[in-house]
Amino acid sequence: MGESYVSSKTINKLIQVHDRIFCCIAGSLADAQAVTKMAKFQLSFHSIQMESPPLVKAAASIMRELCYSNKEDLQAGFITAGWDRKKGPQIYVVSLGGMLLSQPFTIGGSGSTYIYGYVDAKFKPDMSLEEATQFSINALALAMGRDNVSGGVVHLVVITEPGTTIIAVTFDGGVVLGSDSRVSAGESVVNRVMNKLSPLHDKIYCALSGSAADAQTIAEIVNYQLDVHSIEVEDDPLVCSAATLVKNISYKYKEELSAHLIVAGWDRKKGGQVYATLSGLLTRQPFAIGGSGSFYINGFVDAEYRKNMTKRECQEFVVNALTLAMGRDGSSGGVAYVVTIDKDGAEEKCILGNELPKFFDQ
């Protein structure tokens, strides 16, 4: 708003300060834009120095310091929200005077006066994505209907953890791994057909989830170490050795890395094996799932998995699980990659979206 006229009807007051951190701005738009521009620069510099994405609280603290040090000159308030590897989703409010508070939800601006009753009555912890989205839209619509300096269109940003779906399962004589192919950053799909099944050796693969950059780096390091190891011992490495290398790297750098790898393969000693390596934990399992889409298929895999499945049954099990996850999880999608490994080697396959099985709600 200008003094008494509408200077812009469609300005976006949600400003991205890093990949998964946004600010909602209120008050003087010139002041708010200047502060967020400085914060964005400092966060980019900080992430380069630390070689990892910044924490949401770090972004909010930078906003608070900028507001506090210039509180006599600034007329702007901020809500800083996002997702990081340590604490997941977070919301911080930075007041006009530079006060910093962490809250499960917050509202601001002139229109907030009209919707305190609504948000206090309707907010509930652990809402689903759909419920939280509708809650936000309803609150904005009510404020825009009552407050004469709020209006125009509604801008929404949904920030989630890095999304994917990965799975690995053993059969009598080998293993089958599978993954979706979508790489997302917030609301943006940055790659639709990335293969998240990375070879560590001839008969050992890993399925990648979490930060694509972190996961790929771990896979490349382990691939190099296994090549050196196999030359030294003049034999193929064991699957457990590969999983242990992944576990060691994941544990040593667990504060910096945001990645979960499932390691699976075949060796002469123990046949087909699957290992999960979350945050440095190492556990052997008959099957394992991971990524944001795995939450939607826990019930399916628990109900449908059977011991001693054939290779074909395992392949169908993996494809069905991936299809269901991709249908429910907004961060999973694209095509399905499947790798089957046995004593004869590894067979890779890509299943296009129109070739995936159909379920009743599709």
TrEMBL record:
Active site feature: T164 (nucleophile)
Stored Gene3D superfamilies: Glutamine Phosphoribosylpyrophosphate, subunit 1, domain 1 (3.60.20.10)
Reactions performed catalytically: Cleavage of peptide bonds with very broad specificity
EC primary class: hydrolase
Any matching Pfam family: Proteasome
Any single biological process term in GO: immune system process
Enzyme Commission no: 3.4.25.1
KW Protease (keyword) present: yes
Key words of the record: Cytoplasm, Hydrolase, Immunity, Nucleus, Protease, Proteasome, Threonine protease, Zymogen
Compartments where located: Nucleus
GO cellular component: a single term: cytoplasm
InterPro entries the record matches: Ntn_hydrolases_N (IPR029055), Pept_T1A_subB (IPR000243), Proteasome_bsu_CS (IPR016050), Proteasome_sua/b (IPR001353), Proteasome_suB-type (IPR023333)
Annotated GO MF terms: threonine-type endopeptidase activity
Oligomeric and partner information: The 26S proteasome consists of a 20S proteasome core and two 19S regulatory subunits. The 20S proteasome core is composed of 28 subunits that are arranged in four stacked rings, resulting in a barrel-shaped structure. The two end rings are each formed by seven alpha subunits, and the two central rings are each formed by seven beta subunits. The catalytic chamber with the active sites is on the inside of the barrel. Component of the immunoproteasome, where it displaces the equivalent housekeeping subunit PSMB6.
Biological role stated in the UniProt entry: The proteasome is a multicatalytic proteinase complex which is characterized by its ability to cleave peptides with Arg, Phe, Tyr, Leu, and Glu adjacent to the leaving group at neutral or slightly basic pH. The proteasome has an ATP-dependent proteolytic activity. This subunit is involved in antigen processing to generate class I binding peptides.
Matches recorded under PANTHER family: METALLOPROTEASE TLDD, PROTEASOME SUBUNIT BETA
Name of this protein: Proteasome subunit beta type-9
Species name: Labeo rohita (Indian major carp)
